[in-house]
């Protein structure tokens, strides 16, 4: 393909046939068929995703293996995880609330995860909180919902369901709670 700097930036020369590189390094000519539109839509959504700020997922759980598993899961979905052992550790860390969601265990040393939404609200912060617990009872679910939970899951958590809950929580206005 011939390249030109005629317009002040590097671009294909006028009349040069453009090509598309596949993820495997192969180059193929651009066509004007329906697959071309699909590729262009994919490239546009990819550019939009690159411009969007990263989604921060704060994982608060006293179990190291659970923190690691949730971190791997959200990383696989192109989100940025940060892990914390306790509610106090999370609250003492300077983190951004923009494009963020918290996944928190309920029973931990120190403050219960159930206290987190109220402590955030008291500080004027609005971050959705999704609770996970191995101790699922109707009372715990009700308390979580009253506390402002964006989601509630019994451990072990289905990974796709948790990712869906994160997406849902980030699409809703603050303090929109539901139990799953």
TrEMBL record:
<protein>
    <submittedName>
        <fullName>Response regulator receiver domain-containing protein</fullName>
    </submittedName>
</protein>
<dbReference type="InterPro" id="IPR011006">
    <property type="entry name" value="CheY-like_superfamily"/>
</dbReference>
<dbReference type="InterPro" id="IPR050595">
    <property type="entry name" value="Bact_response_regulator"/>
</dbReference>
<keyword id="KW-0597">Phosphoprotein</keyword>
<dbReference type="GO" id="GO:0000160">
    <property type="term" value="P:phosphorelay signal transduction system"/>
</dbReference>
<dbReference type="InterPro" id="IPR001789">
    <property type="entry name" value="Sig_transdc_resp-reg_receiver"/>
</dbReference>
<feature type="modified residue" description="4-aspartylphosphate">
    <location>
        <position position="105"/>
    </location>
</feature>
<feature type="region of interest" description="Disordered">
    <location>
        <begin position="1"/>
        <end position="35"/>
    </location>
</feature>
<dbReference type="Pfam" id="PF00072">
    <property type="entry name" value="Response_reg"/>
</dbReference>
<feature type="domain" description="Response regulatory">
    <location>
        <begin position="56"/>
        <end position="170"/>
    </location>
</feature>
């Amino acid at each position: 393909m011939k390249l030109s700097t005629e317009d002040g930036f590097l671009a294909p020369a006028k009349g040069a046939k453009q090509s598309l590189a596949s993820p495997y390094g192969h180059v193929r000519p651009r066509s004007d068929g329906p697959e071309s539109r699909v590729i262009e839509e994919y490239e546009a959504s990819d550019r939009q995703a690159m411009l969007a700020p990263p989604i921060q997922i704060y994982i608060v759980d006293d179990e190291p293996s659970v923190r690691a598993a949730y971190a791997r899961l959200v990383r696989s979905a192109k989100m940025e995880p940060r892990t914390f052992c306790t509610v106090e550790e999370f609250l003492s860390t300077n983190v951004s609330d923009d494009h963020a969601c918290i996944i928190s265990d309920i029973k931990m040393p120190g403050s219960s995860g159930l206290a987190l939404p109220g402590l955030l609200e008291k500080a004027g912060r609005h971050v959705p909180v999704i609770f996970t617990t191995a101790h699922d009872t109707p009372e715990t679910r009700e308390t979580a919902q009253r506390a402002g939970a964006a989601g509630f899951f019994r451990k072990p958590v289905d990974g796709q369901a948790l990712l869906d809950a994160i997406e849902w929580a980030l699409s809703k206005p603050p303090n929109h709670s539901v139990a799953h």
